[in-house]
Amino acid sequence: MNRTKLNRQTLFFATESFFSTWALNRVFRLNPGNLLSVLIFVACFLFFRYVDVQYPRTNDPAKKRAKVCSIVFGAIFTLFYFLYDRDNYVAELSNRAFRFLMLIAVIAGLFFFFMYVLRFLYIYLADRSRTDAVFYSRECASTGDGEVEKAEPGEGETAKTEPRAGGASKIKLWRKLFLYYEEHMVGCTFALCLIFFLPYFLYQFPGIMTPDSIVQYEQVLHIKPYSNHHPWVHTLMLEFFYDIGYAFTRNPNISASFYTVAQMVFMAWSA
């Protein structure tokens, strides 16, 4: 590859990374001067370049279809996410021209990001041999039954296989974890969801109280009479978990968190 082409590709990746960084900053409500912006830009640049290198430019019809699909579905995901969150991207801007340019930059950045993510998924999920190479050792991927295949026998020799010592012992630790996850997917997914919910739960402890929640909480404490202004069954659910928490802790804040924990458990199990 000549220097001119390399420089052109580098500039192209840098431009895509710039727009994706801009879009992700708006999505995560980060200021442009935030240090994370630099890290996001570098991560996007390296990720986009890696996917482009791994994605072969061939005349294979399947790969061409996958490329088209990544573009089409990238545009669809961009549209849906943009329609969902578009007001937050320009909330602090009053000039129509600036608002328009901001929206165009966010749309472009989200499109590049989703397109490369989908292409990355195609690389590692559509090719089974590549997936096996990622999650299994070479011996395990080649035989799958605990034996290592030997070279083709010479004249007068018979083919032999040698048992692999310890079987799974040659699979790296993180590959063992993946195999364990496959065997216990429901329980592991449940536990992972709770682990990722935990920081936000502790940050918002005992839970996010909106004006509606406060009115229902007053009904739970019998400060106000029951009302169907909010779903009465939902209010009873709040009271049910609050009473359980209060019976054990005698602390109003901790008792209110019991309903939040119940929501976390339900959502994690539903996953």
Structure description:
72% of the residues lie in helices and 2% in strands. The longest helix has 30 residues, at 96-125. A two-stranded antiparallel sheet has the order 1-2. It contains 11 helices and 2 strands; from the N terminus they run ααααααββααααα. It has 271 residues and is an all-alpha fold.
Please describe the structure with a list of short key phrases separated by commas or semicolons.
11 helices, 271 residues, extended, two-stranded antiparallel sheet, single chain
Structure, briefly:
By secondary structure, this protein is mainly alpha-helical. The chain has eleven helices and two strands.
Produce the secondary structure layout.
Blueprint: H1 3-27, H2 35-54, H3 61-89, H4 96-125, H5 128-135, H6 138-143, E1 147-149, E2 161-163, H7 173-183, H8 185-203, H9 211-220, H10 232-249, H11 252-270
Antiparallel strand pairs: 1-2
Poorly predicted parts: 137-151, 156-170
Taken in chain order, the helices and strands follow as HHHHHHEEHHHHH
Number of strands: 2
H/I helix tally? 11
Structural class: mainly alpha
Strand order of the largest sheet: 1-2
User: Which range best describes the helical content: under 10%, 10-25%, 25-40%, 40-55%, 55-70% or over 70%?
Assistant: over 70%
Note the overall shape. Answer: extended
Proportion of beta-strand residues: under 5%
Query: How far do the termini sit from each other?
Result: 46 Å
- CA radius of gyration is 27 Å
Mean pLDDT: 80
